[in-house]
Amino acid sequence: MSDLQVEPAPPPQPPPLPPPVPLLWPSDGQPSLEWVHNLMYTFDWSSRNLPPTDLPFVLPVNVFDSLVLTASKILHKEPNCVRIEEGLDQDSTVVVVGDVHGQLHDLLFLLKDAGFPSENRFFVFNGDYVDRGAWGLETFLVLLAWKICLPQRVYLLRGNHESKYCTSVYGFEKEVLSKYGGNGKHVYRKCLGCFEGLPLASIIAGAVYTAHGGIFRSVSVIQSKRPKGKKNRRIVLNPEENTLSLGSLEELSKARRSVLDAPYKGLNLIPGDVLWSDPSMKNGLSPNTERGIGLLWGPDCTEDFLKKFNLKLIIRSHEGPDAREKRPDLAGMDNGYTIDHDGESGKLITLFSAPDYPQFQATEDRYNNKAAYIVLRPPDFDNPEFRSFEAIFPRPEGYPYYDFENVIDSDEELDLASMETTVTVTAT
C-alpha cells in the first residue's frame, strides 16, 4: 500500500453576504471611508448577483444625484491643470492610473493592490473611466466617491471618452439608459455635466505632467486697437503645419474645458489637443490626421516641453493594445506601459490600466494585455515605478451596450460632423 496521504478537500466557502441595499446618502452629506468601501463592495456584489436593471434599487436615483452633484461642485472649482504639491512629503507616494474603461473589477483590484487613497497616498487618474466596459457607470461613481471623500488626495482628469460623442458610440449612454430605465436620460445628462468639470491635466511635485492625450499647441492672442476700457482679444490660428508651436501652461489654464466634446476646429483647440493627441517617433509637431483631432508630436517636442517647464516626466494614456497594434513605429502595450521618448531632460510614458482590453472583441483572438499603474516616490517624485497586473477572472457576465462587432476598436475614423453638432449644442 502507498504511504501517500490525501489531504481532505477544504470546506466550501459560503457566498459573500449581500450588502444592505439600497445605499443611502450620508445624513451629513459627506461620504466617509467606510461609506466608500461599502459602495465598492456593494457594486462588486451586485455586478455578480443582480441583473444590471436592478442598479436603481441598489443606488436610488436620489443618491446618485447627491453623489454626482457633490463631486461636480468640487471638480468644477479646480483649475484646468491641477498642481499637486501641498501635502507631499517624505512619507507620501503618488499613484498614477491610466485608462480603466468600465472594467470595475480590475479597478477594484488596482485600488487594493496599490493601497487605497489616504493622507499619504495620492492618486491621479488620467481619464477614460467609461465606454467599452460593462460597468462604466459604477466605475465612474466609485471614483467620484473617492474624490468627495479625499478631494486633496484623489484627482480625476478628463479623457477623450468623457464626452457626448464617444459615450454615444462606445456604449456608456446605452449602459446608463439600460440600467436606469425611465430615469436613464436624467442620469446620463448629469454624468455629461460632471464630465465637463473634469480638469485636463496635472503637474505633480513640479516635476511630472500628466494628461490623457498629451501636449498642446500655442494659440496666438492678438490685442486689437480699441478705445481704453474696451477689451477685445481675437485668437488667430494658422492651420499650416509648419506654424504649429508648443503651448504654454498659461494658455492651458485659460482654455475653455466646459464643452460636451472637445472642438476639432475653431478657436478652442487646446482641450482637443490635451485629450486626443499622440506621440510619434518623427520629430516635429503636426496635425493628428489619423484621428482628425489633436496633434502628433515627436521626441524633440517632448524634450522642448520638459525643458521649457522644468519637468522630468510626461505621463499620458489614451492608447491601448488595439491602438498600438496599428502603430508599428511605437512599442506595444502588452505590459500596460511604454517609454515612448527618452531624452536628455526626461521621459514620455504611455500608461494603460485596463487589462485584457477591450472587454468585448469581435474576434476570438484577444490581446491578453497586462495593465499597469505607476508609483512616484519622494524626494523628487520623478522616478517611476511600474506595477503591471493581469485581469481579474472570472469576470461576471457583462453586456457590451454597443455593437462591438461593427464599431472600430480604436478611436479612428471619427464622425467629426457629429462632434461638431454637439459642440454647437453646447454653445447655445
Describe the structure.
The protein is of the alpha/beta class. Helices cover 31% and strands 16% of the residues. It contains 13 helices and 16 strands. The protein has helices at residues 33-49, 55-58, 61-77, 104-114, 136-149, 164-169, 172-180, 184-197, 249-254, 270-276, 299-308, 321-325, 416-427; strands at 81-84, 93-97, 121-125, 154-156, 201-204, 208-211, 220-223, 233-236, 278-279, 285-287, 295-297, 313-316, 337-342, 347-351, 371-376, 385-389. The strands form four sheets. It has a six-stranded mixed sheet. Strand 10 (285-287) and strand 11 (295-297) form a beta hairpin. The chain is globular, with a radius of gyration of 22 Å. Residues 422-428 have low confidence and may be disordered.
Main beta sheet, described? Answer: 6 strands, mixed
Low-confidence region ranges: 422-428
Mean pLDDT: 91
**Overall SS class:** alpha/beta
Strand residue percentage: 15-25%
List the total number of helices: 13
The dominant shape is globular
- What helical percentage do the residues reach? 25-40%
Assembly status: single chain
Enzyme class: hydrolase
Biased composition (Pro residues): 8-23
EC number: 3.1.3.16
Domain Serine/threonine specific protein phosphatases: 157-162
